[in-house]
Structure prediction request, 433 residues.
Amino acid sequence: MIPEIEKRSQSEIKEFQENELRLLLKYLNSNSPFYKKRFKEQQIDITAIKKLEDLTKIPVTTKDDLQKFNNDFFCVDTSKIVDYVTTSGTTGKPVFFGLTDKDLDRLAYNEAISFACSNVSENDIIQLMTTIDRRFMAGLAYFLGARKLSAGIIRVGAGIPELQWDSINKFNPTYLITVPSFLLKLIEYAENNDIDINKSSVKGAICIGEPLKNQDFSLNVLSQKIKSKWNIDLFSTYASTEMGTAFAECEYQQGGHQHPELIIIEILDEDDNPVGEGEEGELVVTTLGVEAMPLLRFKTGDIVKAHNEPCKCGRNTLRLGPVVGRKKQMIKYKGTTIYPPAMHNLLNDFSEIENYIIEIDNNEIGTDKITIKIGANLVSEDLVEKLKDHFRAKLRVSPQIEFVSVKEINILRFPKMSRKPLLFIDKRKKRTD
Prediction:
């Protein structure tokens, strides 16, 4: 189930996207209060935007724009909205997104082809280990995508290893949708309850929320831990509410494939200029085929690197490597730039660590301070020294380490109303730049 456009040459894909872009600009100029005003104020002639390279003539859209002018992004009357979802804004207040019937169909199509990209077919049963409520788009997308693909789906929700294994044993799912670190909890429960995990029906997991790969696509420590015990395929995915689109890995697992019929992407530097071939930068997206709230040159805040060489799977689409980090989570610590995923990988090296959370704050002179709170099976000075040495060897710096109870960290990681676990808490005073 590879869409025909994804098998075309890169020049044909570009031509297709440029035609879609011209249609989108006309739609925004007719229906979007926000973009109509922006085009007028910036004196942008949308008829002059003909090539993807011309996008740089249009200002980027930021999360602050969404926060301040949320209602002005709606292109349809509220009577056409059939579902509402939310995502957090830069001030912590939610940004609302509305979806029409057409948008829900697009969401289902996106997830169906993403599942198919990761080898899921109509013959499979998917166990959903994330919430489908609390105005969370992802859970809804998974359900709609499985239905479009004609695969079965078991809506178990997050957590509770006992319930997850009960469903696995009763319904024989072949794929799990989960945060990868939760797979370690399933493995632990199975080992403590005489369950032979490698004789279960599960053959793969669609993983969300945490990185599985290093930048060269080799397995990171978390993936290695899982696969050393459970012989299943692990597929990375990347998506967001704002995009309404997923980047899914194929069987060759060399990055998440772009769906060019659904999204245009740019990778920009600090000055909003395109980065060079193979360089890291901030992902900026333009959504295609969205009716209620399409976005034009939206800055995601995620630092990524693109891979353009054709894939062995037959797709010629651009692929995104693992997210390097969130732009707003970038830490300047003792002259070194660090993103949280690099610390996650190091902490996962230690079997003694039960759970952890990373806190960033300002020290007395206003620079960044890193505190890692750890819940460990056995606390010792030797473990502290090993952790610090490991950080110095890999990242050239050593953060402050605090040992607290596993229960206390779980409270921090799962705050009330949270739809997914937190691994990073930023207490820094907001910058004005």
